[in-house]
């Protein structure tokens, strides 16, 4: 059974979503309760109670004009006529700041006393109980085209107090509730997002951590206090991983160093044996042991980023590697050739690392080439070179996996499974790439691309 999208959102394990919808729900309930209470309060009002429409006094003020002698007088106004039609007993008191007055209609005598001080008042709200509401009055003070006027009026334009409450709610309270609801829906997610920004930053930093970055810790100062314990535990786990990795690195480096001496002694003793197939096989095995120890040391050097990038010429470098490995390859049954159409091929890299890269590819061809045919190194131009062999090749499903450490295509295959992993690590540090392709010799071709060095003229 599929859950509706809204239900899936509410049941999400996301802390951000959970906080957002709960806060929005709480604010919505609060506003709904406030609106309900306001409606109930309006329903409790006495419908018989009436108020003077406040617009009456304002309409009177806007209808006043000056007589030639400067006194106040009322000009005809359709709006006032409408008020008089509704309440024939409309009365008014008008005063300006200069003390000029104007009165009209049956002004209650109680309000005659207010005339001298009417221009001193700022706000007046007068209501009375029961019919005919003759003492109810509305007050207005404001600037008009003839100056500032103060108006007290009554006797007509009544509105029900319930109607006035509903009108007030529609004009002020209901829009305010709508604005608050909209602000709630928009503001709360923004506030939650800002509060969770520290967690987002910690998450981004955690995602950037990889095997090669040691000593990285997640920040504590930007995450909420409630999750600092979890982040602290994560940092402690990273510390333990770093310590374990460092112990592992030291062990491999020490083991490789310790192996180099007995391997060198063994290689010397084998070289002193009489020539024959057994001596050849032993020389191949001891060379592989020496290469494995050197590869372990190379991996440790690369892990510590001990590389020195500089322009270097691939052609003499390849000549040197071929010369060093030719005896081993020939004794194993191969012909070795170097094709370099151009006299030089400049790339940007670390000389020792590139030599080890090419040496490992040649050693890989020696180990897996079937002990027959040709191993060919070709300078392909534009920072690329290829290593070909005439062995059985590599099936497409294995071409990515062979670069993993200790991976072997066949369980009984020779080799330690470190050479191609070392090649990939060298290229990763150099910003290069390697492709595994079929070779024109019938076996496999490893095509290496290195960054080209920009030579000054």
How is this structure best described in words?
This protein starts with a helix and ends in an 8-residue tail after the last strand. Helix content is 49%, strand content 17%. The chain is rod-shaped, with a radius of gyration of 47 Å. It has a 5-stranded antiparallel sheet, covered by helices on one side. A 5-stranded mixed sheet has the order 11-13-14-16-15, with helices on one face. Strands 1-9 form a two-stranded antiparallel sheet. The chain has helices at 5-10, 15-43, 55-63, 78-86, 109-112, 161-195, 197-208, 228-271, 277-303, 314-331, 351-368, 419-430, and strands at 50-52, 64-66, 72-74, 91-96, 101-104, 125-126, 137-144, 147-154, 158-160, 310-313, 335-339, 346-349, 374-381, 384-389, 433-438, 444-449. The protein has 4 domains: 5-46 and 164-195; 54-156, no CATH class; 207-306, Orthogonal Bundle (Helix Hairpins), CATH 1.10.287; 308-457, 2-Layer Sandwich (Heat Shock Protein 90). By secondary structure, it is of the alpha+beta class.
């Amino acid at each position: 059974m599929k859950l509706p999208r809204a239900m899936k959102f509410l049941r999400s394990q996301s802390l951000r979503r959970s906080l957002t919808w709960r806060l929005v729900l709480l604010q919505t309930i609060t506003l709904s309760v406030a609106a309900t209470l306001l409606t109930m309060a309006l329903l409790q009002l006495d419908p018989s109670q009436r108020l003077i429409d406040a617009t009456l006094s304002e309409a009177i003020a806007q209808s006043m004009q000056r007589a030639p002698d400067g006194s106040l007088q009322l000009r005809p106004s359709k709006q006032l006529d409408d008020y008089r039609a509704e309440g024939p007993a409309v009365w008014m008191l008008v005063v300006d700041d200069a003390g000029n007055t104007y009165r009209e209609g049956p002004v209650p005598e109680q309000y005659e006393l207010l005339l001298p001080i009417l221009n001193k008042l700022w706000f007046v709200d007068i209501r009375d109980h029961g019919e005919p509401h003759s003492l109810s009055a509305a007050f207005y003070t404001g600037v008009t085209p003839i100056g500032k006027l103060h108006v007290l009026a009554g006797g007509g334009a009544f509105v029900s107090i319930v109607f006035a409450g509903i009108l007030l709610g529609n004009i002020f309270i209901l829009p305010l509730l709508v604005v608050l609801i909209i602000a709630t829906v928009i503001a709360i997610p923004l506030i939650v997002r800002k509060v969770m920004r520290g967690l987002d930053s910690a998450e981004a930093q955690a995602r950037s951590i990889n095997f090669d970055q040691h000593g990285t810790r997640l920040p504590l100062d930007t995450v909420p206090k409630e999750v600092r314990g979890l982040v602290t535990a994560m940092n402690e786990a990273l510390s333990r991983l770093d310590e374990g990795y460092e112990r592992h690195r030291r062990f491999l480096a020490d083991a490789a160093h310790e192996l180099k001496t007995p391997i060198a002694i063994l290689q010397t003793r084998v070289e002193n044996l009489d020539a024959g197939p057994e001596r050849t096989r032993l020389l191949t095995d001891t060379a592989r042991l020496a290469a494995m120890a050197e590869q372990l040391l190379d991996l440790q050097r690369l892990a510590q980023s001990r590389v020195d990038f500089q322009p270097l010429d691939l052609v003499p470098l390849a000549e040197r590697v071929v010369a060093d490995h030719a005896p081993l390859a020939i004794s194993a049954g191969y012909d070795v050739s170097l094709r370099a159409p151009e006299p030089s091929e400049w790339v940007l890299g670390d000389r020792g690392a590139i030599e080890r890269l090419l040496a490992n590819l040649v050693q890989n061809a020696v180990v897996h080439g079937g002990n027959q045919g040709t191993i060919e190194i070709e300078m392909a131009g534009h920072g690329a070179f290829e290593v070909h062999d005439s062995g059985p090749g590599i099936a497409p499903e294995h071409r990515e996996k062979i670069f993993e450490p200790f991976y072997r295509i066949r369980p009984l295959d020779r080799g330690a499974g470190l050479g191609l992993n070392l090649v990939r690590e060298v290229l990763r540090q150099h910003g290069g790439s390697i492709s595994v392709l079929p070779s024109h010799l019938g076996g496999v071709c490893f095509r290496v691309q290195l960054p080209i060095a920009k030579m000054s003229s």
